[in-house]
Specification:
The chain is built from no helices and 12 strands. By secondary structure, the protein is mainly β.
Length: 149
Protein backbone atom coordinates (compact mmCIF):
# COMPACT_ATOMS: atom_id res chain seq x y z
CA UNK A 1 0.00 0.00 0.00
CA UNK A 2 1.29 3.45 -0.91
CA UNK A 3 0.74 6.51 1.21
CA UNK A 4 1.20 10.18 0.41
CA UNK A 5 0.61 13.45 2.19
CA UNK A 6 -1.01 16.43 0.50
CA UNK A 7 0.07 19.89 1.59
CA UNK A 8 -2.37 21.92 3.66
CA UNK A 9 -4.46 24.23 1.47
CA UNK A 10 -4.06 27.99 1.37
CA UNK A 11 -6.68 30.59 0.51
CA UNK A 12 -5.59 30.73 -3.15
CA UNK A 13 -4.96 27.03 -3.75
CA UNK A 14 -7.66 24.50 -4.46
CA UNK A 15 -5.81 21.59 -6.08
CA UNK A 16 -2.98 19.98 -4.11
CA UNK A 17 -0.37 17.39 -5.08
CA UNK A 18 -1.43 14.02 -3.67
CA UNK A 19 0.99 11.59 -5.32
CA UNK A 20 2.39 10.65 -8.72
CA UNK A 21 0.92 8.39 -11.37
CA UNK A 22 3.65 5.82 -10.64
CA UNK A 23 2.29 5.51 -7.08
CA UNK A 24 -1.09 4.29 -8.36
CA UNK A 25 -1.98 0.68 -9.04
CA UNK A 26 -4.26 0.21 -12.04
CA UNK A 27 -7.67 -1.31 -11.23
CA UNK A 28 -6.88 -1.20 -7.53
CA UNK A 29 -6.75 1.18 -4.59
CA UNK A 30 -4.04 2.90 -2.59
CA UNK A 31 -4.38 4.85 0.65
CA UNK A 32 -3.23 8.42 1.23
CA UNK A 33 -3.29 10.84 4.14
CA UNK A 34 -4.56 14.36 3.51
CA UNK A 35 -5.08 17.49 5.56
CA UNK A 36 -8.49 18.99 4.76
CA UNK A 37 -10.16 22.16 6.03
CA UNK A 38 -12.19 19.81 8.28
CA UNK A 39 -9.06 18.09 9.61
CA UNK A 40 -6.95 15.07 8.59
CA UNK A 41 -8.46 12.25 6.58
CA UNK A 42 -7.41 8.95 5.07
CA UNK A 43 -8.38 8.67 1.42
CA UNK A 44 -8.76 5.57 -0.77
CA UNK A 45 -7.60 6.40 -4.31
CA UNK A 46 -8.75 4.24 -7.21
CA UNK A 47 -7.23 4.37 -10.71
CA UNK A 48 -9.35 2.79 -13.43
CA UNK A 49 -7.53 3.24 -16.74
CA UNK A 50 -9.14 2.05 -19.95
CA UNK A 51 -7.04 0.29 -22.54
CA UNK A 52 -7.63 -2.01 -25.48
CA UNK A 53 -8.28 -4.99 -23.16
CA UNK A 54 -10.37 -3.21 -20.54
CA UNK A 55 -12.94 -0.87 -22.02
CA UNK A 56 -13.76 2.14 -19.90
CA UNK A 57 -17.08 3.62 -19.07
CA UNK A 58 -18.86 5.35 -21.96
CA UNK A 59 -17.00 8.53 -22.91
CA UNK A 60 -14.28 7.96 -20.31
CA UNK A 61 -10.66 7.19 -21.08
CA UNK A 62 -9.29 7.12 -17.53
CA UNK A 63 -10.99 7.67 -14.24
CA UNK A 64 -9.64 8.58 -10.84
CA UNK A 65 -11.74 8.33 -7.70
CA UNK A 66 -11.07 9.33 -4.10
CA UNK A 67 -13.38 8.19 -1.32
CA UNK A 68 -13.00 7.99 2.42
CA UNK A 69 -10.70 5.10 3.42
CA UNK A 70 -12.65 4.48 6.66
CA UNK A 71 -15.27 1.72 6.49
CA UNK A 72 -18.17 2.86 8.70
CA UNK A 73 -19.47 -0.70 9.15
CA UNK A 74 -16.26 -2.27 10.48
CA UNK A 75 -14.80 0.96 11.91
CA UNK A 76 -11.50 0.19 10.15
CA UNK A 77 -9.45 2.02 7.51
CA UNK A 78 -9.66 -0.62 4.77
CA UNK A 79 -11.60 0.70 1.77
CA UNK A 80 -8.47 1.03 -0.43
CA UNK A 81 -8.01 -2.74 -0.03
CA UNK A 82 -11.51 -3.47 -1.30
CA UNK A 83 -12.43 -5.29 -4.48
CA UNK A 84 -13.20 -3.10 -7.50
CA UNK A 85 -16.12 -4.00 -9.71
CA UNK A 86 -19.26 -2.59 -11.18
CA UNK A 87 -22.94 -2.94 -10.45
CA UNK A 88 -25.24 -2.01 -13.32
CA UNK A 89 -22.38 -0.17 -15.03
CA UNK A 90 -21.45 1.91 -11.97
CA UNK A 91 -17.91 1.45 -10.62
CA UNK A 92 -17.96 0.27 -7.00
CA UNK A 93 -15.62 -0.93 -4.30
CA UNK A 94 -16.65 -3.77 -1.97
CA UNK A 95 -15.40 -3.35 1.56
CA UNK A 96 -12.95 -6.17 2.36
CA UNK A 97 -14.53 -6.73 5.80
CA UNK A 98 -18.32 -7.03 5.51
CA UNK A 99 -18.56 -6.62 1.71
CA UNK A 100 -20.83 -3.57 1.51
CA UNK A 101 -20.58 -1.91 -1.91
CA UNK A 102 -19.81 1.79 -2.24
CA UNK A 103 -20.21 3.68 -5.53
CA UNK A 104 -16.92 5.32 -6.44
CA UNK A 105 -18.63 8.34 -8.04
CA UNK A 106 -20.40 9.54 -4.91
CA UNK A 107 -19.49 7.18 -2.03
CA UNK A 108 -23.07 5.94 -1.62
CA UNK A 109 -23.45 2.54 0.08
CA UNK A 110 -25.69 0.36 -2.07
CA UNK A 111 -26.86 -1.80 0.84
CA UNK A 112 -27.74 1.09 3.17
CA UNK A 113 -28.93 4.37 1.64
CA UNK A 114 -28.26 6.22 4.93
CA UNK A 115 -24.48 5.61 4.60
CA UNK A 116 -22.20 7.55 2.27
CA UNK A 117 -18.40 7.89 2.20
CA UNK A 118 -16.87 11.34 1.74
CA UNK A 119 -15.51 11.96 -1.77
CA UNK A 120 -12.88 14.21 -3.32
CA UNK A 121 -12.17 15.13 -6.94
CA UNK A 122 -8.88 14.04 -8.52
CA UNK A 123 -7.12 14.85 -11.78
CA UNK A 124 -3.86 14.21 -13.54
CA UNK A 125 -1.44 17.05 -14.23
CA UNK A 126 1.15 15.24 -16.36
CA UNK A 127 2.47 12.54 -14.04
CA UNK A 128 1.18 14.26 -10.91
CA UNK A 129 -2.11 13.35 -9.25
CA UNK A 130 -3.89 16.37 -7.80
CA UNK A 131 -6.72 16.37 -5.27
CA UNK A 132 -9.28 19.08 -4.59
CA UNK A 133 -9.33 19.27 -0.81
CA UNK A 134 -12.86 20.62 -0.76
CA UNK A 135 -15.27 17.68 -0.56
CA UNK A 136 -17.30 17.05 -3.70
CA UNK A 137 -21.00 17.75 -3.69
CA UNK A 138 -23.00 14.51 -3.58
CA UNK A 139 -24.15 14.88 -7.19
CA UNK A 140 -20.70 15.57 -8.65
CA UNK A 141 -19.30 12.98 -11.02
CA UNK A 142 -15.70 11.79 -11.04
CA UNK A 143 -13.30 13.75 -13.16
CA UNK A 144 -11.70 12.18 -16.17
CA UNK A 145 -7.94 12.09 -15.86
CA UNK A 146 -5.89 13.38 -18.73
CA UNK A 147 -2.22 12.73 -18.61
CA UNK A 148 -1.15 14.15 -21.95
CA UNK A 149 -0.02 10.76 -23.30
Amino acid sequence: MTSATAEAPTMTQTWQLLCHKADLVAHSGVAAWIETPKGPAQVAVFYLPADQNTPGLPGQATELFAVEHHDPFSDANVIARGIIGDIQGEPVVASPIYKQHFRLRDGQCLEDEAVRLRCWSLRFDGERVLIDLGERPESAAALTGTDGD
